[in-house]
Amino acid sequence: MILSRFTKHVKEQNWFAVGLDFVIVVAGILIAFQITNWSEARREREVEKHILIRLYQDIDESIAGQARDLHFLEQQLADQEVMMRSLSACQVAPGDDPVFQRGLATLGWLNPPRLYRRTIDELIASGRTDLIRSVEIRDGLARIVSIVEWRAAWFQSTINTLEHHSQFVERHSRYDLTRIIENPYVPNHRGGVDYDINALCSDPAIANAISSISYRTSERIEAYRPILNAYMSFLSTIAAELRSRWGVDIEGESTP
Q: Domain containing 117: what range?
């Protein structure tokens, strides 16, 4: 219709009408472009919201896993203190035997830093980290990935050292898989440990090995606490962004 009217106006040399038709066409194109841009921007903001929700869930899960690992390391360190005290006295105090066995069974157990990276890896793979508008969140995410990868880089060398020292102790230990060790962090932990405290305390290498493992257990605790703190701070930042821009109160929906 516009084309036929435009042609008619040209034939009639009605240049005012021709100019008006041209303005109408250009305005229509610009409006169409603007609507498309608005629609695309709205779609990207909706995608961003879902990304932040998933990122919140991943970090929330990371907090739960990292907190559990820290508590487990603290239990191991406490068990190792009982073991060192028993070795110094060359006897296991009444009531300490279950702890001594658990300490032997979990000696040198260690997990790498916990970071559930499903959403992070998807963002990196797609090259669309720019979908997250908040500079604070993008920078916070980069810092978290950096600190986790830095701590993870030392994980294998720490494991190798722990395994080396654990071998000295295992030479004097025998596991009984028919027995269950009480361990809140390892449900149905099979593997009671038979040991000879006199044989253990007579070999100085045993106490040295457990002491070295305790040192590295303590070092990992101090290394992982800042990661947990960073997760908790970052979680609050994501929650604030979702609440201020979309009215999403995700903190009320998260797992305690």
A: 47-252
Contact (Cβ atoms closer than 8 angstroms) between residue 197 and residue 86:
yes
Task: For residue 21, report the phi and psi dihedrals to the nearest 5 degrees.
Answer: -60, -40
Query: Which tens digits make up the pLDDT trace of 124-157?
Result: 888 878 889 999 999 999 999 999 999 999 899 9
- Total domains, the chain: 1
- Could you read off the pLDDT of 97-118 as tens digits, one per residue? 999 999 999 999 999 999 999 9
Strand partners, 180: 190
SS3 category, 146: helix
Token pair for 102: 């658990």
Q: What are phi and psi of 188, to 5 degrees?
A: 50, 50
Q: For the purposes of burial, counting CB atoms within 10 Å of the CB of 238, is it exposed (0-12), middle (13-18) or buried (19 or more)?
A: buried
What separation, in Å, do the N-terminal and C-terminal C-alpha atoms of the chain show? 63
Is 210 within the bounds of a domain? yes
pLDDT higher than 70, residue 85: yes
Does 12 map to a domain? Answer: no
Residue 6 included in any domain: no
* 139: β partners: none
- Residue 213 placed within a domain: yes
- 8 Å CB contact between 109 and 76: yes
Using the 8-state DSSP alphabet, how is residue 184 labeled? T
DSSP state of 186: S
Q: What is the mean predicted confidence (pLDDT) over 8-30?
A: 57
Handedness of CA 172, 183, 97, 204 (dihedral sign): positive
